[in-house]
Design a protein that fits this description.
single chain, 465 residues, alpha+beta, eight-stranded mixed sheet, six-stranded antiparallel sheet, 20 strands, 32% helix
């Protein structure tokens, strides 16, 4: 094992009085935007309120969706922007903003190339729920995408000497008399405030999946759900944007992720790639009850209809080899082991005869590439045949907030009249409209890189003018 890379944030003594661009948030969106803008020559600073960098991006596990990539061709996969658009549009209940979706689906392959140009290689592909084609790109090690992306973006940020500050909260955006953004007011770790001048600001603050009060306001039915979000996902960007007159879209569209392990102190999301590589779901009777790779919305609804409102993810050693995140889930004690099917059934307290029958039927479906019971047609590259066998207990939890600040495809934040707020840009989970009423797995990482690049470029273009 090599030594783990540790990024050193800047000391506050290095804070300058003014910057061309201030980026609020250090997840995939913020780091991509900062890197892109720095490469275009802007003086950039990144502010993160938490002690740890990376935000919710750290928790992403499956991959990054893109169509018409060279990587797909190397794997014999023929795809198109149009099919990517269509799958996402249908998956989002046809409520997606068409302009945002068009830009997103036609620029994701470029984003894969841009990452590769920076030594961030995503050369393996898998599939997630709601997609018909393998277009979820990930490193060939099959390591979880989030930590891989954050670590490698930070290496590039360090190389370019872009200052990143932790434990610093952006409390307010400042505007001049013509309502152009002209800076920010910071709350420093010692509790004091400081104003900085900046001609552009990018909001990359993530969603509000960890803000129970806000969820209660917009979706009281989800108030008691656990969340997969890190503690910093409290919707700060919404508050900042609201103060300067921004419009919002789809705030009530909150995604519940179907496969979350919640029996420990923390809720751990079990990435869709596990199902994409062949895992199935069974109920307490040891029987399948859903197409496991239907949309998150539909899989969640099926689990919620079970008496226990929970289920078991079942897989074997073959699937485990193709989804490295399982090693982490096992390391922290989430994976139940069975030497054979009877042993596993005993440990998860389901009827062994039912579990055996279910797996026999499923393995037959994989051989025939037809699932007469639930019409699953993806994630059928391999059966569940290699002992030992494994299970993870899962139930739905709040995962992603599809709604947020209203932006156009240039990432400009729009006011109530639909006009851009001059100098203010946003993207990633803080912005709404791209995903409609249901986000497809693999689209959030793609969104952070596609719109992170766009925000960095548009901030540069705005300053040129």
């Amino acid at each position: 094992m090599g030594t783990k890379y540790v990024f050193q944030p800047m000391d506050l003594a290095e804070l300058k009085a003014s910057y061309d661009l201030i980026v609020v948030g250090s997840g995939g969106m913020g780091l991509t935007a900062a890197l892109q803008a720095s490469e275009l020559g802007l003086q950039v600073a990144v502010f993160e309120k938490m002690a740890k960098l990376g935000g919710n991006t750290n928790r992403a596990s499956s991959g990054m969706n893109a169509a018409e990539t060279n990587v797909q061709l190397e794997h014999g996969i023929i795809d198109s922007y149009q099919e990517f658009y269509q799958d996402t549009f249908l998956g989002g209940g046809q409520r997606n903003d068409p302009q945002l979706l068009d830009y997103f689906t036609s620029h994701a392959a470029l984003a894969i190339d841009w990452l590769a140009d920076h030594g961030i290689i995503l050369d393996d592909v898998t599939i997630t729920g709601g997609m018909k084609i393998k277009r979820t790109h990930r490193p060939s090690s099959t390591a979880p995408i989030g930590g891989f992306l954050v670590t490698n973006l930070l290496k590039q940020i360090e190389k370019r000497q872009v200052p990143v500050f932790t434990g610093v909260q952006v409390e307010h955006l400042l505007q001049d008399q013509s309502t152009q953004i002209c800076g920010v007011k910071l709350k420093l770790p010692d509790g004091t405030s400081q104003k900085l001048a900046a001609r552009t600001v990018i909001l990359a603050t993530g969603g509000f999946g960890a803000n129970r009060e806000l969820i209660k306001q917009v979706r009281p039915d989800l108030a008691d759900y656990q969340t997969t979000n890190q503690a910093g996902a409290t919707g700060d960007g919404l508050k900042l944007a609201k103060e300067v007159g921004a419009a919002f879209v789809d705030l009530d569209q909150i995604q519940v992720h179907p496969t979350v392990q919640q029996d420990t102190d923390h809720a751990y999301l079990i990435g869709e790639a596990v199902r994409g590589e062949g895992a199935i779901l069974v109920d307490q009777q040891g029987q399948r009850f859903v197409n496991e790779l239907d949309t998150r919305k539909n899989v969640t609804a099926a689990i919620d209809q079970l008496p226990e409102k929970a289920a078991y993810l079942i897989f074997d050693g073959g699937i485990r080899q193709h989804a490295k995140a399982i090693d982490f889930y096992d390391y922290i004690g989430l994976v139940i082991h069975g030497q054979d099917l009877n042993d596993l059934a005993d440990k998860i307290k389901v009827p062994a005869v039912n579990l055996t029958t279910t797996l026999a039927a499923w393995n037959q479906a994989v051989i025939q590439q037809a699932d007469p019971k639930f019409s699953r047609s993806t994630g059928m590259d391999r059966g569940i045949t290699q002992a030992p066998y494994f299970a993870i207990h899962i139930a739905p939890a709040v995962h992603y907030t599809m709604g947020g600040v209203k932006i156009n495809y240039q990432t400009q934040v729009l006011n109530q009249q639909g006009q851009p707020i001059k100098g203010l840009f946003a993207g990633g989970e803080v912005a709404g409209g791209l995903h409609g009423n249901n986000r497809i797995g693999g689209n959030s990482i793609a969104e952070t890189v596609v719109f992170g690049r766009q925000a960095g470029q548009q901030a540069f273009k705005y300053l040129q003018n």
